[in-house]
Design a protein that fits this description.
mainly alpha, two-stranded parallel ribbon, elongated
């Protein structure tokens, strides 16, 4: 109520959600537990002898996928389109609380790749609301001559990329 009627007031997630929805004229399905669900499917399909080790790194993988989306990491094996890549694999691994072992690093990449494919089909989580339009979005309308950001210091690299594309 304090803003002029010509002012748009939205969260970064809401803006990203609208942009990503407009990319394919589809209904988006939002699931906050998407990464965990994808990892559970991967573990269920793995040989029994490997499942225990995968369950042991479950939290490290889901946390890693969330951080990957905040930092703008896209696995180099993604070749279906040309996203904006904000961070390399080695720089991403250096930002994790602990350097990932081979299994954890591989599972992060596999879950992230599946998550990206699912986001193109309209199945997203809250992180995808910003990650997908910031790195793959092409239709950024309207554009804004001025953007005011509350709590600017809390923006992630992907948030910065989305804001930059809006101006």
């Amino acid at each position: 109520r304090r803003m002029l009627s010509t002012t748009t007031v939205k969260t970064i997630n809401a803006i990203g959600h609208n942009i990503w929805s407009a990319q394919g004229a589809r209904d988006l399905r939002l699931d906050a537990q998407k990464s965990g669900a994808l990892l559970r499917e991967i573990i269920a399909a793995a040989p029994r002898a490997e499942q225990s080790a995968m369950w042991n790194v479950f939290s490290a993988v889901t946390d890693g996928v969330a951080l990957a989306k905040a930092l703008g990491y896209v696995p180099s094996s993604w070749t279906a389109s040309s996203p904006l890549r904000l961070i390399s694999r080695s720089a991403f691994h250096a930002r994790l609380d602990e350097r990932p072992d081979e299994l954890t690093a591989e599972l992060i990449d596999v879950v992230l790749m599946r998550s990206i494919r699912e986001a193109f089909r309209g199945f997203i989580d809250f992180n995808d609301q910003v990650y997908m339009p910031a790195l793959w979005g092409s239709h950024f309308l309207p554009r804004f001559p001025l953007i005011l950001v509350d709590e600017y210091q809390d923006l992630s690299p992907v948030d910065h990329a989305l804001v930059a594309r809006l101006t």
